[in-house]
Amino acid sequence: MKDYIEERAVGIASYIIENNATVRQTAKQFGISKSTVHKDVTERLLQINPALAAEARKILDINKSERHIRGGMATKEKYAHQHV
């Protein structure tokens, strides 16, 4: 694996852990796709630093379990600000 990919994977995991960030927020921050974020954390990082991968994965799993709630809140907020 190329060095810059390893560095990016570690950087992504650190960002997710420090900021409790979602895949979407992380992808935007690093200027890469959500697929790349997911692949870096779930596959590439496991080979580089399994402990860091597990910690980042915990946060991503929590975010995934809460996403339906966030979506509902975003929709509620959207319609609360519309004037009929």
Characterize the structure shown.
- The protein is 85% helix and 0% strand.
- The chain is built from 4 helices and no strands.
- The protein has helices at 3-19, 23-30, 34-48, 50-80.
- The longest helix is centred in the C-terminal third of the chain and has 31 residues, at 50-80.
- It is elongated and about 55 Å long.
- The N and C termini lie far apart (55 Å).
What are the salient characteristics of this protein?
84 residues, 4 helices, mainly alpha, 85% helix
Helical stretch count? 4
The SSE order reads HHHH
The dominant shape is elongated
Helix/strand/pairing category = mainly alpha
- What is the β-strand count? 0
Strand content: under 5%
Fraction of helical residues: over 70%
Roughly how many Å is the radius of gyration?
15 Å
| Unreliable runs | none
For the biggest sheet, the summary is: none
Mean pLDDT: 91
How far apart the termini lie comes to: 55 Å
In short:
The chain is 85% helix and 0% strand.
Which helices and strands, and how do they pair?
Blueprint: H1 3-19, H2 23-30, H3 34-48, H4 50-80
Helix pairs in contact: 1-3, 1-4, 2-3, 3-4
